[in-house]
Each structure stands twice: as structure tokens, then as C-alpha cells.
Amino acid sequence: MLHSPLPSIHRVVTSHNDQGQAVISYNNTLPASILPHRVAEAILWTTDSSPADVNSPDDKGLEQVGFLNGGSILRIVDLPPRTASMHQWDNETDEWAQILCVMAPARTPEFGGQTLETDLSFLS
Fold this sequence. Notes:
The protein is mainly beta. It has one domain. Helix content is about 0%, strand content about 35%. Strand 3 and strand 4 form a beta hairpin. It is flat. InterPro entries: OryJ/VirC-like, RmlC-like_jellyroll.
């Protein structure tokens, strides 16, 4: 699997031990893997519901998720030179750029009295 040329993300995830004290559960690096549409991503954390169930001991950064999942997704996205995003952000440099993307559940947006539909055509 190909990886981004940018440094891997260092992630620290906390939880609680049996005595209710805060502890570090995960302290690791996550390389960003190149996706078919030339960007690279590293999933930091996901939830499959809102509000989130924070009682699971599982590493939610290892969950296989799509672009949307009905919960929250925190991902680092590495964009190669001159690549644009669906939000009109464009990497106009000759270097890779790195952004944090937070996907959170929301009501369907409306604009001018019309419901905006999900458009994932940029992924193909």
C-alpha cells in the first residue's frame, strides 16, 4: 500500500481505567494511505452514532468506514500538489498539504428553500 510522503500522524487517545482515572489507551502513529483519487487519509477516530458511545475499548481509528457513516469521522487528509477539494479549497503549491477533516452528523442542509443532496461524484 502506498503512503503519503508527509510524516505519519501521532495520535494519543485517552479513556478511563477500572478506577475511573484518565489513562492513555492508544499512543501511536498512523500513516496516511493513498486512496484511488490520489489523496491520502489516516482515520484518527470514528463513531457510529450520535451521541457517541464512548464505553467501547475498541480502537475506533481502525474501523473501516466510507466517506460518511451516520456518526462522526475524524480524518487527516493529505492533498498532493494542485489538488482541489469539494469545498473549493485548492492546493496551489508544489508541496503536499495536510488538513484535518471532521465529519459530524447533521440535518440535511437547505438553501433557497431547496434540500441539498449528497454529492460524492468527486470520489470517482
